[in-house]
Amino acid sequence: MIRVALSAVIALGVAIPSAAEAACASRSKLVDTLSSKYSEAPVAMGLSNSGGVVEILTSPDGNTWTIIVTTPDGMSCMIAAGESWENKPAVKVGQGI
Question: Could you say which DSSP state residue 21 is in?
Answer without folding.
Answer: G
